[in-house]
Give the backbone structure.
Amino acid sequence: MRIVVTILAVAALASVPLWLRDPYLLNALITTGIFVIGAMSLNLLLGFTGQLSLGHIAFFGIGAYVSALTSLGFDAGLPGGFRLVHTPWPPVVGFVLAILAAGLCGYFVGLLSFRVRGAYFVIVTISFAEVVRLVALNWVELTQGPLALTNIPSIALPLPGFGELTLRTKMHNYYLVLVVALIAYLLIARLVRSHFGRAMRGLMENETLAVSVGIDVTRTLTIAAVISAAIAGAAGSLYAHYIRIIDPEVFAFINTVTMVIMVISGGKGSLAGPVVGGLIFGLLPVALRPVMAPEAQWIAYGGVLIAILFVLPRGIVPSLAQRFARRRGTTALAPVALTETGAKEPA
């Protein structure tokens, strides 16, 4: 049943550019899809290991800057009078390097910060994001600082025998984001259903018991952080090559909050939760903008979030799945009941 629902959902999303002609709405879907990928990566930490990272946008921004600088090239100074010179490479190489760079940063951050827990871990992740933002803001020779990196080239896919396909149009970018999101979803699904995924869940539910059966806490959490950061870096690369301009505001704390809202509202610890929550809270501002003033939009945004968490406290997907399972179980037991004598009679 789940496979059928997943296939139908993917088919429905794939058909959108065929009938949606409004470029504004298609743009909203593309940017929402990019942040859904980021939310899925955050859910791997928050939902399956129980670690709240409020600096997750750092990996998103690192992926954006690495991919942009790889495709633009740069000539920046280093301490000691050395120069760091790089000639432009194809954007698709930047996409790969963005994943590797974000994953490497996730490794070092995880290796250091997973030795602490709770509020200390949250502080470490926030501090890391702020340090990266300040580097992007002040290393003007490399990142252009507040002036932003502009004219970032679009991703071009090599087609053997036909040259290459440059993904300039919104339709091209929509399908690119959809494919990357599907790959990320399948990768996370495969991971959490494996032995490693059971180890992650064990750490989240009872760390002491998990350690007693031989699970290496730091190693498990660090690997999860690497994969999570790498997926976030891929989302950042897509964002840079689609928007084609980035500045240090990409590291804004509100972007991390947006991802957390997508995960919590959709249902942390569920594969479809960040997707559902992301589509709702990514497109809700677009729906409210024509009918409400900016101040009223934020009030309505917060009201919808509170209503969802009040009615569906576990998130949309887990709460609805639980209610559906209960209803189906009740229906299966309802047709027949036993009397005191053991005879069957209609319920």
